[in-house]
Amino acid sequence: MQVRNYFGVVAISILMACNSTNKSTTATDTLSVEKVEGKVADLHIADEKLQTIFSAYIKLKDELVSTNFEAAKPAATTLATLLKGYNGCENAAILTQKIATAKDIAAQRKEFTSLNTELVPVFQHTVLTSGTIYVQHCPMANKGDGGDWLSTEKKIQNPYYGSEMMECGAVIAEVKAK
């Protein structure tokens, strides 16, 4: 009896935390390269190739936040190409290509979870010369298994749900310049 009560409290807590959608948020048109570069302008990674990969990653993440299925395809293709050329990221390149060829936004978001499993550790161990990378987590993503992603801002902009649950998630780690 106590176990069921515990699970009930946990389920209600998660739903309350993640059901606060941002009513004023709407899907936006494709983000321009300038907007993406502006988001990472204060962030400098010592490895220039990783800097370029991170900028492309943010572009893809933002398209998923905007629930922009069509724009996520070329963003994923660009990221896949960059990852293929970076030693140790070959598997991430394959996963990113799956996002580019996915049949719908749900499939893109599913593969994005796997991509983050590969990329979050890479960026958690990278050397920043300025700025902060935020590792964020949504407990509701992937049918309750959760999902992580990277951001240049503390503000939660959920790529797994977009406007359905824009603010569902929390910052779980920060990578700061040393």
Could you name the key traits of this structure?
178 residues; three-stranded antiparallel beta sheet; 6 helices; 5 strands
Explain how this protein is built.
The chain has 178 residues and is an alpha+beta fold. The chain has one domain (2-176). Helix content is 51%, strand content 13%. The protein is built from six helices and five strands, in the order H-H-E-H-H-H-H-E-E-E-E. The strands form two sheets. Strands 4-3-5 form a three-stranded antiparallel sheet. Strands 1-2 form a two-stranded antiparallel sheet. Helix 3 packs antiparallel against helix 4 and helix 5 runs antiparallel to helix 6. The model is unreliable at 1-36 (pLDDT under 50).
Number of DSSP-assigned strands: 5
Which class best fits the helix and strand makeup?
alpha+beta
Strand content: 5-15%
Number of helices: 6
Q: In which order are the strands of the major sheet placed?
A: 4-3-5
What integer value in Å does the Rg equal? 16 Å
Distance linking N and C termini: 50 Å
General form: globular
Major β-sheet annotation: 3 strands, antiparallel
H/E element sequence: HHEHHHHEEEE
Low-confidence stretches: 1-36
